[in-house]
Specification:
The complex is a heterodimer. Chain A is mainly alpha-helical. Chain A is built from 14 helices and no strands. By secondary structure, chain B is an all-alpha fold. The chains are: A mainly alpha, B mainly alpha.
């Protein structure tokens, strides 16, 4: 899957050939226009080095964390810490963190907050974006101004904290959802997309007797799958990554989201309280090394983003750009 | 249909914005049953909180740190996504470009806790670099705990997280440039660098100006979680920025009025900055964040 920018230069997608491979084309770079001329060798090498370093800067830490989380005590001791070369596949760290304790609970809390929060956010944002995408609807201009003004004026931390606690949301998981449920940026992105749906389409549905909600769910939404996917990812990532609001509002350990637990293990240096029963784990003879357990928590925190991301990534340029350019 | 979203913004955005008036109070949470009651019963002290704030050397430390980091990142971070977009745009192979994009966008989706964790595991006292240096018989440097180089560290973390993501908007602007301009320029004998200077950069200018304005309006916020997370390790002197100052003044030490005053100061200065920057952009004939209308 190649993620091209729409219309970013003449790069034809290679058609999938089923038969024997066709003879390779003569020109080495079929995408470069004839007038462009060949870049100098040093420039090409320079770009190659830069891109390689950037890719390595992202992949090397991910690799080191993954390999260390699967390493045995002996391998970690030999390496003196982080392991770069896998020697074995030892899942005991994962068995440990998922057999009850802080991490298991935090993964559930974060999953719950992410699913509930993303649902609330998407539904409310889509409804608002649809309402604001029809010029001429009730108080259209005033409402739009009301939403856009949030870009210019910000509530401070202190009054926000007082409002959330005043509403009795302290130590409730809703405090991680409601205050950040509406991102006006996301709303503007979706609205820009909705405005591109031809009005004739909606008018004809209206003549056929469809109500607004029906038009939204049957016509507008199916045409906007790409942008909904991207905004859904933005919201989900925001909820999965919530950390500071949990520091502010959540007091009980059993409601800590995963980021808070990760912070206490790695950055604050608490030793992982991963399981109530530290012995007799199924299939594990020795207690796994602390470093492997810590790195397994890192992997668990990274994984949701890495899994969802490829499915949504090809929509990025489309979704982000309509918002950024028109907003 | 916009009603539920509007209500949420009213409660969690506009109501707290109004709540900033406690900056003019000696707000005391214990004189009432809930924050509203406490607000009604707290004493009004005019600009007392602001006077105390402007006399507080810790506040000016935080302002100085914030502005230094903004300036540093404007020079050492802001141009990098533009360079990356130019490089990516010149990569002819769509497959290679797609791969690089997939990889460099990814850290944008990591939380600050994760980003700092990765840096600790790579460069911290027990990290990969330190352990390699020890094995080579060298003394590892304390990059993660050195207040003098903290500004470089936070910038490196920000670059790692958002360099790729920042390039997207420039890639979009690049793809909107009319390809015929390049062909015509090439036919007239303009080389690679002259085409870059006379076509590509003017094509990017509106986006660059827009992002500069937004950055300027945000000059007093340099990120929050990133600093909260590392304040212990490097100490307050280097890591206290305005946002962390508000947090530690108000919520940790319970000086609510003072914290609210610092927050209000930041919001007002930010609003003035963004309006000014936008006005300058209009004078220069750019579109800016919002149009004149």
């Amino acid at each position: 899957m190649t993620a091209q920018l729409s219309g970013a230069g003449p790069v034809p997608a290679a058609p999938a050939t089923a038969g024997p491979p066709a003879p390779p084309p003569r020109r080495r770079h079929p995408g470069r226009p004839v007038w462009a001329g060949r870049p100098s060798t040093s420039l090409t090498i320079g770009k190659g080095v830069v891109l390689t370093l950037l890719v390595a800067a992202v992949l090397v830490p991910l690799w080191a964390v993954l390999v260390t989380s699967l390493a045995s005590r002996g391998t970690i001791d030999d390496a003196g810490g982080m392991v770069m070369i896998p020697r074995e596949f030892d899942p005991s760290a994962y068995i440990t963190i998922f057999s009850g304790g802080d991490v298991t609970r935090a993964v559930w809390v974060s999953t719950l907050v992410t699913v509930a929060g993303t649902t609330v956010s998407l539904v409310l944002t889509v409804l608002a974006a649809y309402g604001l995408s029809r010029p001429g609807s009730v108080a259209h201009r005033g409402l739009l101004f009301y939403f856009l003004l949030t870009f210019l004026i910000f509530p401070g931390l202190v009054p926000s904290y007082l409002v959330v606690t005043g509403l009795g949301l302290k130590d409730s998981l809703w405090s991680l959802i409601l205050p950040s449920a509406i991102s006006v940026f996301n709303l503007v992105v979706i609205r820009a997309f909705f405005m591109n749906v031809p009005a004739e389409l909606l008018d004809s549905a209206r003549i056929d007797g469809a109500g607004e909600l029906r038009i939204l769910t049957r016509i507008v939404l199916p045409l906007s799958k790409a942008v909904i996917a991207v905004v859904g990812l933005f919201y989900a990532v925001g909820y999965w990554n919530v950390y500071f609001n949990a520091v502010l509002y959540i007091d009980s350990n059993d409601k800590f989201p995963i980021q808070r637990v990760l912070q206490s293990y790695i950055l604050a240096g608490q030793s992982p309280n991963v399981s109530g029963t530290s012995v007799n784990l199924p299939g594990v003879t020795a207690y796994p090394p602390t470093l492997a357990v810590k790195m397994a928590v890192v992997v668990v925190t990274v994984i949701p983003a890495v899994i969802i991301y490829p499915f949504v990534q090809r929509h990025f340029t489309k979704g982000v750009i309509t918002g950024a350019v028109k907003g | 249909m916009a009603a539920p979203a509007a209500v949420l913004l009213l409660v969690f955005h506009y109501l707290p914005t109004l709540g900033n008036i406690i900056a003019f109070q000696d707000y005391n949470p214990f004189v009432g049953d809930d924050p509203l009651d406490a607000f009604l019963n707290s004493e009004w002290i005019g600009f007392g909180n602001f006077e105390a704030l402007f006399r507080d050397p810790l506040f000016w430390d935080a302002v100085r740190n914030t502005l230094s980091i903004t300036a540093f990142q404007l020079v050492f971070f802001f141009p990098l996504p533009i360079l990356l977009a130019l490089i990516l745009n010149s990569v002819v192979s769509g497959r290679l470009r797609g791969f690089v994009q997939s990889v460099v966008y990814l850290p944008h989706f990591f939380s600050w806790v994760l980003v700092v964790t990765f840096f600790v595991q790579m460069f911290g006292g027990a990290g990969l670099l330190a352990q390699e240096m020890r094995q080579a018989g060298l003394e590892p440097w304390g990059i993660m705990t050195n207040p003098d180089t903290f500004i470089v560290l936070v910038t490196a973390e920000a670059v790692w997280k958002d360099l790729g993501w920042g390039a997207i908007v420039f890639l979009a602007a690049l793809s909107a440039i009319d390809q015929n301009l390049y062909e015509a320029a090439a036919a007239d004998g303009a080389g690679r660098w002259r085409r870059l200077w006379h076509i590509t950069l003017p094509g990017l200018r509106p986006v660059i100006v827009l992002l500069l304005i937004m950055r300027l309006g945000d000059a007093l916020s340099v990120g929050f979680e990133q600093f909260i997370l590392q304040r212990e390790a490097v100490g307050r002197q280097a890591a206290e920025v305005l946002d962390t100052f508000v947090y530690y003044q108000a919520i940790s030490t319970q000086q609510w009025g003072l914290g609210a005053a610092a927050g209000l100061f930041k919001a007002v200065v930010g609003l003035v900055l963004i309006l000014t920057a936008n006005k300058i952009a209009h004078r220069l004939g750019e579109q800016g964040v919002y149009s004149k209308s």
